[in-house]
Amino acid sequence: MNIFTINNSTINPSNTKTYVQGGIQDNLKLVEVKFQTVESTGNQFLAFKWENQQGNPLNYTFWQPKPSKPIEAMGAEEKRIFLEFKVGYPMGILRQLIEVYKGKIDWDKENLSTSTFKEFADKIVALLGDSYKDKLVRIKVVYDNKGFTTLPKDPKFPFIESMDVPKEDTSIQIIEGKDVVVRPQMKGDVEIKEENPLNEAFTAPTKTDDIPF
Fold first, then answer.
1. pLDDT tens-place string over residues 1-26
2. Are 62 and 95 in contact (CB under 8 A)?
3. pTM for the whole thing?
4. What is the pLDDT of residues 47-60, one digit of tens each?
5. DSSP-assigned states of every residue in the chain
């Protein structure tokens, strides 16, 4: 088998895309919104994909929140934490995201209260429709605890706005101590250091007592 080969499929910088980096990024276009189920686990998620003008992607995945036990069996504090942070915070992110494309919505009239995640996700996809087509936005991009770029978790702070908003009037800010916009050093990041095999060949022998000169 000939493993040492260079041909047209060999890695080439011209056809290699990197992900959108952390920070406040301009001119991002939402290109895909979809609901999916992972066949092997049955886990469900709602996925959003943006691209910048170079075609580099930014992904946001909202996984179906799964409690460690039935909600009815939770204590008051445990239930509050689950509903506020695992469910409520992502809902706030989705609200802000949707309104940048659809404008302000009377959510009490929109009837987005559902009993299943799939029904909820399908309603989100239907609500967005084609509203995001060709609309450019500005997004605050952060890193998660695995070193991947995503959207911020806290919906209390603006993270997305139309590019119609002049940069000097933006309401998006990097929150110090909360927003990680520089990729952290991860456990799997190992600096590769190779010894030059020629070093040994060009290293003079060390003089020892058993050398007769």
1. 777 888 887 776 665 568 999 999 99
2. no
3. 0.79
4. 999 999 999 999 99
5. -------TTS--GGG---PPPSEEEEEEEEEEEEEEE-TTT--EEEEEEEE-TT--EEEEEEEPP--SS-GGGS-HHHHHHIIIIIIIHHHHHHHHHHHHHH----HHHHT---SSHHHHHHHHHHHHTTTTTT-EEEEEEEE-TTS-EE--S-TTS--EEETTS-GGG------TTT---SPPPPTT--------HHHHHTSPPPP-TTS--
